Inverse folding.
C-alpha cells in the first residue's frame, strides 16, 4: 500500500512539472502577440476615453483613423508630424508605426501643448515610437535630414506650401505628404493644393473622412 501511495505521489509530481513546462512554453510562444495586444488595448482605451474631447487644434477621430490606415496599408516607417498639439494625431500615427516597426518625429512650438502630448503618449504606451521636438517648425523642418516616407502637416496653413518644399527632396519613392484642413477654406490651403497638384512625379487626392479633409500627395514609386 505504501508503495502504491508513493507511486501516486510521484505521478502527481510529474504531472505538475509537465503542466508548469507547458505553461512556460505557452507564455514564451504568446509573448509577442500578447504584448502587441496589450498595447492595442491601451491605445484604444485612450482614444475612446478621450473621443470628442480633443481640443487645442487636434484632428477629429475619423481623420486620425484615416492616417493610421494609410500608414499601416503602405508600411511606412519614417514619419514626420508638423504640429503635435496635445497629441491626438500623434497617438494615431505612433500606433500605426508600432505596427510597421517605424518611428515618428513630431514638432510642436508650444511647450504646454507638447508637455500634455508627452503625457498622453506615455499613457498610451507609445513613447518609444516618438521623437518629440520642441521647436519652430519653420526652421527645424528644413534642418531634418530625412528621408521620410510619411509626413503629416497640421500647423500654420499659410506655410503648407513651404513645408512641402522643405521636405520634397527628402521624400522617399512612394512617400506621402498629408495635410489637414484642406476643405476648411483656410488661407494658404488653396495655394498649397495648386502647388502639389502641379508637381511632376506626384499624385494628389483628398480623403474626406471628416468635413476637414486630408490631402494625400504621394511621390511616384519609380521617381526620386
Amino acid at each position: 500500500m505504501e508503495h502504491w501511495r508513493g507511486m501516486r505521489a510521484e505521478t502527481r509530481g510529474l504531472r505538475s512539472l509537465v503542466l508548469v513546462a507547458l505553461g512556460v512554453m505557452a507564455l514564451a510562444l504568446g509573448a509577442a502577440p500578447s504584448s502587441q495586444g496589450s498595447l492595442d488595448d491601451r491605445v484604444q482605451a485612450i482614444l475612446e476615453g478621450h473621443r470628442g474631447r480633443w481640443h487645442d487644434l487636434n484632428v477629429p477621430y475619423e481623420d486620425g483613423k484615416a492616417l493610421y490606415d494609410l500608414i499601416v496599408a503602405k508600411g511606412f516607417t519614417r514619419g514626420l508630424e508638423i504640429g503635435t498639439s496635445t497629441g491626438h494625431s500623434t497617438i494615431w500615427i505612433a500606433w500605426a508605426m508600432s505596427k510597421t516597426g517605424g518611428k515618428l518625429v513630431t514638432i510642436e512650438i508650444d511647450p504646454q501643448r507638447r508637455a500634455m502630448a508627452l503625457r498622453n503618449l506615455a499613457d498610451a504606451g507609445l513613447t518609444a515610437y516618438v521623437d518629440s521636438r520642441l521647436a519652430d517648425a519653420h526652421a527645424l523642418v528644413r534642418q531634418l535630414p530625412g528621408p521620410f516616407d510619411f509626413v503629416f502637416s497640421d500647423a500654420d496653413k499659410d506655410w503648407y506650401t513651404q513645408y512641402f518644399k522643405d521636405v520634397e527632396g527628402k521624400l522617399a519613392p512612394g512617400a506621402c505628404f498629408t495635410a489637414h484642413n484642406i476643405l476648411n477654406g483656410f488661407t494658404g490651403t488653396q495655394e498649397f493644393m495648386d502647388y502639389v497638384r502641379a508637381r511632376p512625379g506626384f499624385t494628389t487626392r483628398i480623403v474626406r473622412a471628416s468635413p476637414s479633409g486630408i490631402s494625400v500627395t504621394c511621390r511616384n514609386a519609380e521617381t526620386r
User: Anything to note?
Assistant: The helical segments are 2-49, 61-74, 88-100, 111-124, 137-143, 160-168, 189-197.
